[in-house]
Every structure is written in structure tokens, then in C-alpha cells.
Amino acid sequence: MTLYRNLILVALILTFGVVSLGAYVRLSDAGLGCPDWPGCYGKLTPHHAADAINAELAERPEGPVSHAKAWKEMVHRYAAGTLGLLVLGIAVLGWRGRRETGGGPGLPVLLLGLIVFQALLGMWTVTQLLKPLVVSAHLLGGMATLSLLLWLWLRERGRASRAYFARVDHLRGSVALGLALVVTQIALGGWVSSNYAALACTDFPLCQGLWMPSKDFEHGFTLHRALGETASGALLPMTALTAIHWVHRVMALIVILYLGWLVLRLQRTPGYACMGMAIGGLLVLQVALGISNVLLSLPLAVAVAHNAGAALLLASLVWLNYQVLRR
Question: How far from each other are the two terminal CA atoms of the chain, in whole angstroms?
Fold first, then answer.
């Protein structure tokens, strides 16, 4: 099953790239670079759709369509399509060699179903005009794909990957809660990004010069609505964007405190000190990137790095949970 394990590893690395590339597309406002799906104006590449793109540019020069944005969007789709084929291959090999795998074909088949759902979310992201709920779900689907592939890869590495880790049943609840908090924070971060609320507070640690700025939680956290609008179609107020941003900051503080405590526990647990240091380092990096996004007015490179850092922090918690649960 060497091919099987290698495919999983390649898919895992590609998934990290697709998640990061998706963040780049979203943050560079290229999500509607090709306003149809799966092609670009019905063509395979933006090069073949040049006439349609030029016509759109002539009509709306400041609109969401340009040649550069179309290429960004399509490169992301090509990468996601390649990932889908890899996961299909993993599912087929997992099913055919189900007696030789570490845990049967259930997880590969689940991954294949998730990839199909991700493709639908990618289509709806375009056809629903970047509806925040769909965009956020698409981000979470990418993170879930990364997590499941990592779990599958760890499982297929066999017992050797767990040889250096002691049995620590008393940590199971703690590490599971840490993972849940990180997932929640990623979901909130996706909601901030999909609503373009990252700069609702341009100072730190205050927000709009206040510890408690005016906030509209009702409109900010109404899920079923269009981008930039309330459920009734009115313009989304600044207080709603402030509520979204503020909640993300508060949750970040909770995650920092809890993971900081968890890292200290791992430092005192035989075999887990290095993993604790890795989680602690990624946590510090994420905090620095988040603050930089605010103080530097969301530079594209820093914002993409913040998304990639979230994926790495999530992966580290998934790895930790695997080691604790599988002992």
C-alpha cells in the first residue's frame, strides 16, 4: 500500500496549498473573477474567454472581473480539481485494499463525499455571489478536508508513528476541547473574512478607540443574507461588522489562554514537550499575524499567512488528538 500512503501525503500537501490559495483568491477580491462555474464564461481557461472578459471590462471597468482575477480564480479551481482526482484515487485504493489499510475504507469514502460537497460549495460561492454563509462553509470544508487527510495519513503510517508517545488518557478531554476552540475560532475568522469585517477595528487592543464599541450582533450574525446586506436587503451597518470583528477578538483571547495552559501541561508530559512547543510557536505566530493585519490595514501577504497559520495550528491540534486518542 505504498502508493496509497504516497497519494495521501501528496493530497495532504496539496490541500494545504488549496486552502492557502483559496484565501489568496478571496482576499484579493478574485472570487467572482469568473462569474460562472466550472469554466470561465463557459471556456476552459481565461485565455479562451478573453473576449467575454474584455466585454465585461468595457462595461464595468471597476467591476469584479479582470484577466488577472480570472486567472487567480481558475488556478484555484484547477488545483481543487486535481485534489478531487487524488481523493478519488485514495478512495478507490482504500476500498480495493480495505483488508490491508490501517482502519478500513470508511474514512477515504467520507473524504470523497466531503470533496464532492466542497465542489458544490465552490459552485454556490460563485452563483450565490459570495454569500457569507456559503463562503465560510467552503473555508470550513477545506479545513475539514485537511484534517481528515492528516488523520488518514497518520493512521496509515502505523504504530511506529506512536512509539514515542506515552499513554495520557487524562489529557483526552483537554486536547479535544483545544481542537474544538480552534475550529470555532477558524469559523469566526471565516465569518470575519467573508463579511469583509477585518478592518472594522483599525486599532489594537482597542476597537475604534474603545474597549466596548457599539455592536449589532443581530445583523452581524444573521446567517442567511447576501454579502453586505441585512436579511431584509438593507445595507449592513458598521455596527454589525464591528460585532463580527469584536467576537473574533474575544474568542482569540480565549484560545490564547486555553492553548497556553495546554502547552504548559504538554511540557510536563513525557513525550509531548516538542509537540507542545510546536503548538505554542504556531499560536504566537497567529497572534502576531492577526495583530499585524489590523495595524497594517490587512496587507495581502499577511492576511494569507494568517489563513495558512490557522490551517497549521488546526493540523497540530488534530495531530495531538490523534496521538492521545490512538495510544
Answer: 23
Q: Encode pLDDT of 205-222 as tens digits.
A: 999 999 999 999 999 999
Active-site option among 59, 62, 73, 100: 73
Is residue 36 helix, strand or coil?
A: coil
Q: Catalytic: 62?
A: no
Grid cell in block for residue 97: 485494499
- Which residues are 235's β-sheet partners? 229
Torsion (CA) 34, 38, 41, 44 in degrees, nearest 10:
110
Instruction: Write out pLDDT tens, residues 90-134.
Output: 999 999 887 777 778 899 999 999 999 999 999 999 999 999 999
Kindly indicate the confidence band of residue 161, based on its pLDDT and cuts at 50, 70 and 90: low
d(CA 186, CA 257): 16
- Three-class SS of residue 266? helix
Q: What pTM does this model have?
A: 0.95
Nearest Cα to 73, choosing from 49, 104, 107?
49
The secondary structure element, H or E, covering residue 35 is none
- Peptide bond preceding 205: is omega within 30 degrees of 0, i.e. cis? yes
